[in-house]
Every structure is written in C-alpha cells, then in structure tokens.
Specification:
Layout: E1 2-8, E2 13-20, E3 25-29, H1 36-46, E4 49-54, H2 60-63, H3 66-73, E5 76-79, H4 84-88, H5 91-94, E6 110-111, E7 117-120, E8 123-129, E9 138-142, E10 147-151, E11 154-155, E12 158-159, H6 169-180, E13 188-191, E14 197-198, H7 199-205
Parallel strand pairs: 3-4, 4-5, 5-6, 10-13
Antiparallel strand pairs: 1-2, 2-3, 7-8, 8-9, 9-10, 11-12, 13-14
C-alpha cells in the first residue's frame, strides 16, 4: 500500500490517497478543492480505481470536491452521522464563506461508528470518533502503516479550532487524550493541515493538550 499526501484547495487542506497497485484499488481520505487534478494522474499511473472516499469531518475545506469525486468515480462515501447536516446542507458552511466558494451536497453511503473496522486495500483501519473541532470528526487508524489520519482534531503543535458550530475545547481535549494519545507513541499523525507529527511528540510537546 502506498500513501500520497496531497495538499489542495484554497487553504491547502491535506488529502491522503491510499493506493494498492497490486489490487488496482485506492481510497481517498478527504476531498479539498481541485483534488481530482492531483488524484487522477496517480490513479492512472498506478492503474488503480478509486473505490471509497472517507471524510474525516464535514467542514467545507475537506468536502469541497467530494461531489465531483463521487460523480467521476462512483466511490462509496463513508462519514460520521453527527456531521450529516454539514454534508447534505452545504448552505450551512457557505454562510461562513460569503458565497465566495460554491459547495455541493455530498451523501454518505454508510455512516461510520466508534470502533468500526474498515476493510480496504487488503488491510484494516479502525475508526475512532474525535468530536470537539466539530461533532462528527473521526480518525482512521492503520496499525499496518503505523499511521493515523485525524482530520482537524490535532496538528503538529496545535489543535483544531473550536469556535465553529458544535465545537468545544473541553470535548476536543478529551477526544485527543482518549482516542489519539492512546495510540502507540510511534504512530505518525497525518493532520488536515500542515506537516505530519507523531503521537509521542504531541503528548510531550503540544502546548494545548498534554498526554
């Protein structure tokens, strides 16, 4: 399995493309604006078909191209039901953007739950619910890759904003300690923005939430 880190969109939101050329399949985690221009050449080069789109949460910068990706690939969408309104009613997010960015609704094929095990690309990934940045933020943890994709819950030296609807710093800190800091210290944390870090590094040095 290969990991492609693909920053895209107006505020350089990280998308993560997981490919398994030997199986001819791929999974995309999050769909920022114009992501397809980066994803399509990789799929062609590695002879993979995008089978699933996993959304870490419903904020606009992570979903801007989701509807386009689904139209082009018929990929199955997985997300958490707590952010259903954000996904299906983009006007909620548009209100924060003053109409500058066009958003389309995206509809999940299945709602993931805390502790759910997803089978994809010949391996398994665990879903953990990490609310606080927004109600439906989830992470996808791969023990095989020693990696976790956390959306906007945690960044290198920082945490996600909690001043949007449904946000709570107290809830976010609890989520980080329970769902991220309980992973092995060597686990690489791939956030929604910025560089990767590790669980151990953030437990020791993150000024907002210490382990």
């Amino acid at each position: 399995m290969k990991l492609h880190v693909l920053p895209a969109g107006p505020i350089q939101t990280n998308a993560y493309l997981l490919t398994a050329p030997e199986r001819g399949e791929a999974v995309l985690i999050d769909a920022p604006g114009d992501i397809w221009a980066q994803v399509a050449p990789i799929l062609a080069r590695e002879k993979c078909r995008l089978t699933e789109l996993w959304l870490t949460h419903g904020h606009w910068d992570h979903t801007q191209s989701a509807a386009e990706v689904v139209r082009l690939t018929k990929a199955k969408v997985r997300a958490h039901v707590a952010d259903k309104a954000f996904y299906e009613t983009p006007q909620i997010m548009s209100a924060f953007l003053s109409g500058r960015i066009k958003l389309e609704p995206v509809f999940a094929d299945s709602w993931v739950e805390q502790g759910e095990i997803l089978n994809a690309l010949g391996t398994t990934l665990e879903v953990r619910h990490v609310p606080g940045h927004c109600p439906g933020n989830v992470l996808f943890y791969s023990a095989a890759l020693k990696a976790v994709f956390v959306g906007d819950a945690l960044f290198a030296g920082n945490v996600g904003r909690t001043d949007f609807p449904g946000g709570s710093m107290e809830m976010l800190a609890d989520s980080i300690r329970r769902q991220i800091y309980t992973l092995p210290d060597e686990t690489v944390v791939y956030p929604g923005h910025g560089r990767a870090t590790t669980v151990g590094e953030e437990k020791q040095h993150n000024p907002h939430v210490r382990g």
